[in-house]
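Bench notes, bay 3.
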Amino acid sequence: MSILSSDLQGFELPLRLLLGFRVLIDELHEELARQGHPRMRPMHGFVFQAIMRAGGRYGTTAADLGRALGVSKQAAGKTIDMLEGLGYLRPGHDPGDARRKTYTLTPHAHDALERSEQIFEDLRDQWAETIGEDRLRAMVEDLRKVTPPDAFRLDTPQWFNAP
C-alpha cells in the first residue's frame, strides 16, 4: 500500500514530468520558429549538443555522433544530411586522416543554440511567475536529488524507441 494519498496515483508522476518537458520544448520550438529557425526539431538540439561534446577540434563523424546519440551510423548520417541541408552543419575532414569526414556546427546552428538558451531562461521565468520562484527552485532541487548528476543524456530521444 502506498504511503501517499490515493489522489496521487503512481503513473501520474512520470506523465506530469514528461508533459512538463513537452510543454517547455514545444514552447521553445514555437519561439525558435518565430526567431528564424522554423525547421528546428527537438532532436536537433540533442545532435548539436552531441557534436559539441563528442566533436574534436575538427568536428564529429557520423559514427561518433551515432554512438553519442545511441543510434546507428546510418541514422546519424541521415540526420547529418538533413541538418547540412538546413544550413546547421558544415562538412570537413580531419587533417590527420583525409578519409575521416567530419561535421561542425555552422553560425546558423550557434545562433539557434544562443536563442534557445535565452528562450529557456524566459520559459523558466514564466514558470516562476506561475508557481513562484521558491516552488520552482524547490522543484528543481528535489529533482536533482532523485536524478543522476549528469543532466545531459544525449541518447534520450533514442531511448523512447529502445527494445
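Next record in the batch:
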Amino acid sequence: MSKRISPPRLLLALAAALLCAGVSAASAQEQRAQNTRFANLASAFAPRHLADGRVTTAPTGYVRFCADHNHDCEAAGTGLGVMKLDTQRTAELERINRTVNDAVQPETDLDHYGETERWAYPDDSRGDCEDYVLEKRRRLINLGWPSSVLLITVVRDREGDGHAVLTVMTDKGDLILDNQETDIRAWKDTGYRYVKRQSQVDPSTWVSLGETRVPPVVGTGR
C-alpha cells in the first residue's frame, strides 16, 4: 500500500527539492566563476592545467602569419594530451628556452617592420614576444615534440599589456616559456592574466582562457 504524504510534508518536500536545484545551479555558476579566477590569477591553489574555454578568434598577427606559413599552422606529430617530462625532454625544453632568449634581440614590430603588429620567425635575430614563441615552437617541433602540447598563448602581463608566451602541456602541469623570464614557470606562477591560446586539437583554432579584455596589440616590445 502506498504511503500518503500530508500536505504540510508535501510542501516541505517540494521546498527541499527546489532548494537542492538552486544549490546545484549555484554550484555550477560558482565553478564557472572559479575557472575564470584560475585563468586570471596566479594562485597556490590553482590546478596544474589551465582549462580551455569557448572557441574564439585568433590574433590578427597569427592569421597573417599562417597565410605566409600555412604548413606551420597545421597539426604536427602525434596528438598527445601532455608530454611526459623525462630527463631528455626536460633538458630540451630548458635548452630551447634559454638559447632562443639569448639569440634574439628584442625589438618592437614598429621599429623592426614599420608596422604595429607582425608575427614572424626571428631569422635576423630580432623580434618581439610572439616571434620568440614562434621560434621556440618551431625548434621543439623539429625535435619531435607534437604541436598539440605547444600552444601559443596570449596573456596580459603584470602591467596589463598584451604579451605572448608558449604554453607547454606536460605531466608536470602547464609550463610557460617566456622571453621575459630566464626560468620556465608553471602557468599559475607567472602573475599573468590568460586571454586565449591555440586549441590542442587544431592549431588554427583558438580558445578563450578567462580574461575578457583582449589586448589590441599582442607585443609592445619584449
